[in-house]
Structure formats: C-alpha cells, structure tokens
Amino acid sequence: MTTTTGSTAGAAPTGPAPAEETGAALGRLLFGFFPTQVLHVAATLGLVDHLADGPRTVEDLARATGTHGPSLHRVLRALACFGVLDEVAPGTYGRGRHADGLVEGGPSSMVHLVRLFAGRDVWRSWGELDETVRTGEPAWHRVTGASSFETFAADPEQQASFNKAMAEGTRRAAPGIVAAGRFERFSTVVDVGGGDGTLLAAVLAAHPDLRGTVFDTPSGVDGADRTLADAGVADRASVATGDFFGSVPTGADAYLVKSVVHDWDDERATQLLRRVHEAATDESALLVVEPLMPTAPAASPEVLMLVMSDLNMLVCTGGRERTEAEMRDLLAGAGFEVRSVTPAPGSAYNVVEAVPVA
User: Fold this and answer.
1) Superfamily (CATH H level) for 120-356
2) What is the DSSP track for 33-53?
3) What is the pLDDT of residues 215-272, one digit of tens each?
4) Residue 10's pLDDT is what?
5) Which end of the chain is more exposed for a tag (fewer CB within 10 A), N or C?
6) Long-range contacts at 131-135 (CB < 8 A, ≥ 24 apart)
7) Between these two residues, 11 and 270, which has the higher pLDDT value?
8) 0.85 cut: is pTM over it?
C-alpha cells in the first residue's frame, strides 16, 4: 500500500477573528505550560503510585512525599481538574480516570515521557527557542554543554529514564507497526537503535518463526535482555552493541529503524542509512518507522503534535520531521529505493519500506 502525505486542511476562515475568540485561542496557548509542570510534579513525586492502596489525605501524601502540605494540596487540586486524581472527600484524593497514565510501569504509563519532556533539560532548551531560530543551532548543547545523547550516556539514571520514556511511546504504537510491517515475510530482523527492545519484543511475539537482534549503544540497550525475556522471546533474540554511524549487524532479511532518523540532520541521517545499506543483502528490506510531515499545515491535533515534535527536534537534537518526499530523497541519497509507505494503524507512524539499489 503506497500513500502520499498531503494537507488535510479544509478551507481556512478568512478575515480576522473577533477579539474574544482570539484572546481565548491564544490564551490557551500562552498558559499551556502551566499544566505541563503540574504533571511533572505528579510524575516526579510518584503521586499516583502513592494512591495504590486507596485515597489518602493531603497531610498523609505530604508526609509520604516529603512536601509542604498546603502547597501540595494546590497541585492535587489541579490534578483533580485534569482527571488524574479525584477528590473523594474534602482534602482526600484518590486515583482519577486518567491516573493510569502516571502509574510507574503500567501498560498505559507516560511517567517517564512526562519526566523527560517536562524535565529540566528539555524545559531549558525550549526556553531558548528564539536563539535557536536565530542561529539554527540546537539549544540543548548550549544549555547543557553536551549533545542530548551525550548527556544521557554520561548519567546512568537519566539514560535509564530516557530508555523507559522511549519504551512507553513505542509500547502504544507497536501493534500498528507490527501490522504495517508485514514481518511474516522475514526470517531475521535487526532493530537498529532499538533501545530496550520493546519494539523487537512485540515483533517477535507476533511472529514465532522470526529471529531478531536489537542493536544500540551499550547504554541504549540497558534493560533489553529483561524486556525480551519478559516477552518470552529471549530464545529467538540477541542484543548487540555498537555505533550505528560506524556499522550495524550484517546479513538480516529486514532492518527496522524506528524514531531514529528524525533525531539527526540530513548528513548524519544519510550516514546512518548508508551503514544499513552496507550491512544489507540485495534481498534485504529497510523499514523506517517515522511520522511524515504533511506538505501544508492542517488544523488537526495529529498535525499539531507532529509540528511540535519537529520543533522539539530543532531545539534538542538538531534533527527534524520529514515529508514523504524528503524521506524518499534521504533514502535515495543512502542508496535505497522506496517501495511502499504504509500507515501504522492506531498511531501517527508510517512504515516506509525501501530496498537497496546499486
């Protein structure tokens, strides 16, 4: 199935909006960072986990979290407005309908995504978006003194949280990626930049005759053995470490590259893809899993998230989200020809399948 990504925008309203409408629309954007930090406090303190055995009073939660009770109460009240908590009695809070998103290790958990994207380094980097726009240089290096990946690699605790954040996002998208990738065609697959093995585990679990390797830096694959074992696929999986700008494991039927290409500018992304080309056989397939930017803005939440992700790449890594045409050009420059672009059901991702060409 081949698709072409384009604008989904309808006819745009003409003329200026009434002042009240503009004020409401821009006000929501201006104050949008307030809830972000409320979620960050909840994730950092583990507030939802402290409610595992039932509702607790503000005073009890303050003692458990080592916080100032009256100040904590104001955060709890906000979380109740968001549906994360529920005030079951005056000054007593339990889990709300969205609480599962902040349960550590739960199937719907976004705890580590919240800690990452609302955490200090991303927060500071976004605060320098204006300077990045002036210079074209990522803010992360400017505010931390190192690249984002160097920062994580130097701090085991931060690297572990980053790995878990990536796994949280991948876990929700995995069923759609597994379906769109049609992995039943292959005998072996290498997940390049596969982190803790969450996606490879899902692929192997769905295809009992498939064998796979997760490949990443030593710090990147931390926890992969456990992930693969927990999924019951360790007997058909291996973990390999290295630098994908230098080389990747050779001779696989399929190379899976999810949420890696967008981390890098065109030069570095091409270098990575060329290493895959060198490792592939003439019959190998490359499956690049990324969202694809529409060719024109569209008034939809999905497109807005992708546009914001593109800006996040700008300030944090120097990478970018790409249109289908840009992805095709990038792959062609690395020696691949695109055969199909298949949306992954239930997610924002597409599986871009390409094959090596001479």
Assistant:
1) Vaccinia Virus protein VP39 (3.40.50.150)
2) HHHHHHHHHHHHHTTTGGGTT
3) 999 999 999 999 999 999 999 999 999 999 999 999 999 999 999 999 999 999 999 9
4) 45
5) C
6) 132/314, 132/315
7) 270
8) yes
Catalytic residue among 40, 73, 112, 262: 262
CATH number at 35-108: 1.10.10.10
Residue ranges of the chain that CATH labels 1.10.10.10: 35-108
Separation between Cα atoms, residue 254 and residue 261, nearest integer Å: 17
Pinpoint the residues of the chain covered by CATH 3.40.50.150: 120-356
Q: Residue 264 and residue 258: Cα distance in Å, rounded? A: 13
CA angle 160, 166, 168 (to 5 degrees): 100
- For 81-129, write each residue's pLDDT tens digit: 999 999 999 999 999 999 999 999 888 999 999 999 999 999 999 999 9
Alpha-carbon gap, residue 114 to 133, rounded angstroms: 25
Is 262 marked active-site? Answer: yes
